[in-house]
Design a protein that fits this description.
Structural class: alpha/beta
Strand order of the largest sheet: 3-4-2-1-7-10-11-9
Largest sheet: 8 strands, mixed
Strand content: 15-25%
Number of strands: 36
Shape: globular
Length: 850
């Protein structure tokens, strides 16, 4: 067969429903219509790999078989497929593996491969019926993991690497019986027999390996996004779609922070000169991104950020003109298993950056490194930092056009500037605390100065314009269905908070469904309304309290509550607070050693949690970052030994470790990294069985802003459960559960015009909703009285408080608004009424729950 094939890869959500298989069939039929053979590479059905991971932890994985097989049987019924011999054999293989369960890595790899083998068997049966003959191909017949010297057995089985060279003659073997075939992503053959897994990003890598092996016409990755963008659209809704990139640019963007593709999937295609396309399965009409060999187009293509970077600065006059100094220094890094990324040098100083690898996160690694380096130089560690990268070909030739960006970056404390030797990126390393809004502001400057504009060859539409109306980006706004009832409530008196219990319950159920999560606690400080507390108790949640008042609220709202479901985590709590928690039977977190020393009898014989400061804070604003040397929360890892001794002297048991680093976090890997760090610290504490990963789950605020990827979070938690089966993992969200469930209704008292500015004075202000003044928080607003009228004015919404910071919203587009109109402020269910005050002797707002 001489025609070059097309390789199509589809992820878990793309193969989980009959409707999506119809779309897959349509795409495959179109590619076959080009006269080319088609190889389809599929992932397991959405959620199945997580379920396999969970079952693997069970001594009797066979008990999970009914739930594992249920979605497959349902999908076959939806596709109207009968169960033939091949399907029965695939199911029987899963059953036999469950019966043969063991701790061996070979068994684990084979067990985890079954999701892809089952989904591809379903696909083969359906495609054969709909499109004619479709060959089922076992990927292990073509892809063999590469032996690597000194590689651990775990890595060779569960995170293997493959290398292929183009062998077009193998097309005949694959397509000899027909032009359509289907195979599995994620899996390969192990050189010693059995199965090897390709690890994270494995399915994309499988597709690229097949593309290179077969010298394909192209590889198409069908995923949940239209391609690669000029910035992370979770942070920058105005990020532009990148229509075309060369291999090097795409790999640079992927390796400096973008997560659409794994950098590892591009090398095989580059070597074989096979182009790769990225498309959105749910929106196949969108243009996508092409990656391949293309004419050089100098200029900035994207801006990205990597957080939790560590800098090591080494200084000595002895390095000046000394032969072999860097060789000796880098050998020390090698011995500690640390890979250097960025390098900056001067006559007497070398500074390098380290990404947050597992080795770096191990307790004591940095200390041991510094001790060894101290024999040849003076050492200074700077952390945590963020590396901001401008990526694009010929970046040097654009330096003169980046002056405004340089000025903005220069307002921060810049520790290191690195211009890549391949002329593809310019990177600045700044304090992580200073990096919060840097990427959006830099991207805004790129747009303002026309640096993301061209003839349309590279830059496409913005994320916002592509997905502004997509259901996956904008959630249902419950309050629209209750407009008349809300207006009636406002007539009874404003300001008033209104809570929709159905929305709160829906958010709780979303999180309860996460794989790998053993307990979900509601952070009561977000909103202590009794109706919300009762609803969450009915949904099976536990509670996290930070004060005696919150404990008393729980006791009053939930008579008979088993306080074993409650975690008490005070900051500088008083003796009476801890005594109350103990009397009620709540679990207690110790935030510092002071309470153990001052009131030892309170903690004698108790089971305790320790709150750990992991050395960094994260979140959307500096005032919500609750870690690092500038934060009052938690004890440092260096204090663990002393805490353990103090507990041992009291006969107290350390049953859990707790870390909460901040709020407004959209990176699902954050909780995986926190869990890994806590698990490493718990190695020295044999009684620890619970790791509380904190909360801070992000809630999108602005129009078209993407939300937290719960599928990715579920996968991250499942990975934790697999890697650290000793522990149970807890989360303690607050705002995620209640923000969308609450709105604030306020009435317009008056309108004032000052030159070009318009101010709408409300009866609600910073005393009612403090978040905008305290955190610069964005809350969407609507004129509920004139909801269906078009916007015709822009105004600042301000309150009655005698403070210049009493501004709830700036420059908002509204219909022509008059005194007496009711304004609805959204996302007000969390830290609204809970933070309200009587400042200026204003009344507190009312609260109602439906």
């Amino acid at each position: 067969m001489s025609a070059r094939p097309v390789v199509l890869k589809f992820g878990g959500t793309s193969v989980a429903s009959a409707e999506r298989w119809v779309e897959i069939g349509r795409i495959a039929r179109a590619r076959l219509g080009e006269g080319r053979p088609v190889l389809i590479v599929v992932s397991a059905l959405a959620g199945i790999t997580n379920a396999l991971l969970a079952a693997m932890r069970d001594p009797k994985p066979g008990q999970a078989l009914p739930e594992l097989l249920k979605p497959h049987h349902e999908l076959r019924r939806a596709l109207r497929l009968s169960d033939g011999a091949e399907w029965e054999a695939a199911v029987e293989r899963l059953r036999s593996l469950a019966a043969e369960a063991s701790d061996s890595l070979a068994w684990q790899a084979e067990w985890l491969a079954q999701g892809e083998l089952l989904s591809s068997r379903i696909g083969a049966d359906w495609l054969a019926r709909e499109l004619g003959r479709c060959r089922f191909v076992d990927a292990r017949e073509f892809l063999i993991a590469q032996p690597i010297p000194n590689q651990s057995e775990r890595a060779s089985r569960l995170s293997a690497l493959c290398e292929v060279r183009p062998q077009p003659e193998r097309r005949e073997r694959l397509f000899g019986t027909g032009p359509l075939a289907i195979t599995q992503g994620f899996i390969a053959a192990h050189p010693e027999g059995g199965t090897a897994l390709l690890g994270r990003g494995g399915s994309d890598t499988s597709a690229s390996l097949f593309g290179a092996l077969l010298q394909a016409e192209r590889v198409e990755i069908w995923t949940d996004v239209a391609g690669m963008f000029s910035a992370n659209p979770r942070e920058v809704p105005e990020a532009r779609l990148l229509r075309e990139l060369d291999y090097e640019e795409a790999q640079e963007i992927a390796s400096t922070g973008a997560k659409v593709l794994h950098p590892r999937c591009l090398d095989p295609l580059k070597e074989a000169a096979v182009p790769l396309y990225v498309f959105d399965t749910a929106r196949p009409e969108l243009p996508g991104t092409r990656i391949g060999t293309s004419p050089p187009r100098p200029g900035v293509k994207a801006i990205s950020a990597r957080h939790r970077v560590t800098l090591v600065s080494m200084e000595t006059i002895g390095m000046w003109q000394q032969v072999g100094f860097l060789a000796a220094v880098f050998d020390i890094f090698r011995r500690h298993g640390l890979s250097v990324d960025l390098i900056g040098s001067a006559e007497t100083n070398v500074t390098v950056s380290l990404d947050p690898t597992e080795n770096l996160l191990e307790p004591g690694t940095i200390e041991a490194l510094c001790k060894d380096l101290a024999s040849v130089c003076r050492v200074k560690v700077i952390a945590p930092c963020t590396a901001i990268s401008l990526v694009g070909r010929g970046i040097r030739s654009w330096m003169h056009r980046l002056s405004e960006l340089m000025r903005l970056i220069g307002e921060r404390r810049v520790h290191l500037v690195s211009q890549s030797s391949n002329d593809l990126n310019l990177t600045f390393v700044v304090d992580e605390a200073d990096a919060g809004d840097l990427v959006p502001r830099l991207h805004e400057l790129l747009l303002r100065f026309g640096l993301l504009e061209d003839d349309g060859a590279v830059f496409g539409p913005s994320w916002k314009s592509l997905y502004g109306g997509a259901a996956s980006v904008v959630r249902r706004e419950w309050w629209r269905e209750w407009r008349e009832r809300l207006l009636e409530e406002a007539a009874l008196g404003t300001p008033v908070y209104v809570y929709d219990l159905a929305t709160a319950r829906a958010r709780a159920r979303e999180l309860r469904s996460l794989a790998g999560l053993d307990r979900l606690l509601y952070a009561v400080k977000a909103n202590a309304h009794p109706a919300l507390i009762a609803a969450f108790a009915e949904e099976g949640l536990g509670f996290e309290c930070v004060s005696a008042g919150e404990l008393k609220r729980l006791a009053a709202a939930l008579p008979g509550l088993d306080f074993e479901r409650v975690l008490f985590t005070p900051s500088f709590g008083e003796e009476a607070d801890f005594a109350l928690a103990r009397r009620l039977g709540a679990r207690i977190t110790i935030d510092d050693l002071g309470p153990l020393r001052r009131w030892p009898e309170l903690f004698r014989g108790q089971s305790l949690f320790l709150r750990i400061d992991l050395g960094r804070g994260v979140g959307h604003h500096e005032k919500v970052r609750t870690g690092g040397s500038g934060s009052k929360f938690g004890m440092t890892p260096a204090e663990l030994g002393e805490a353990e001794r103090a507990c041992r002297e009291l006969g107290a048991t350390i049953e859990g470790l707790h870390a909460h680093l901040g709020s407004g976090i959209f990176d699902p890997d954050h909780w995986r990294e926190v869990g890994a760090q806590l698990a490493s610290l718990a190695d020295r504490l044999p009684a620890v069985r619970i790791l509380d990963l904190g909360g801070g789950l992000g809630v999108p605020s602005r129009p078209a802003e993407p939300g937290l990827d719960l599928g990715a979070l579920s996968a991250a938690l499942s990975e934790l459960s697999r890697l650290y089966p000793r522990f149970r993992f807890w989360l303690e969200p607050g705002r995620y559960l209640v923000a969308e469930a609450g709105v604030l209704l306020a009435r317009v008292r008056g309108l004032k015009r000052k030159q070009s500015q318009v101010f709408l004075g409300l009866d609600a202000g910073m005393h009612t909703l403090l978040r905008p003044a305290l955190y610069d928080a964005y809350h969407p607003v609507w004129n509920l009285s004139r909801l269906d009228e078009p916007a015709s004015m822009r105004a600042h919404l301000v309150g009655p408080i005698c403070e210049s910071g009493d501004i709830l919203a700036r420059h908002r587009a509204l219909p022509e608004t008059a005194p007496g109109d009711v304004i609805l402020i959204g996302l007000a269910g969390a830290y609204g009424a809970a933070m309200a005050s009587r400042y200026n002797l204003q009344p507190l707002p009312r609260e109602v729950a439906w």
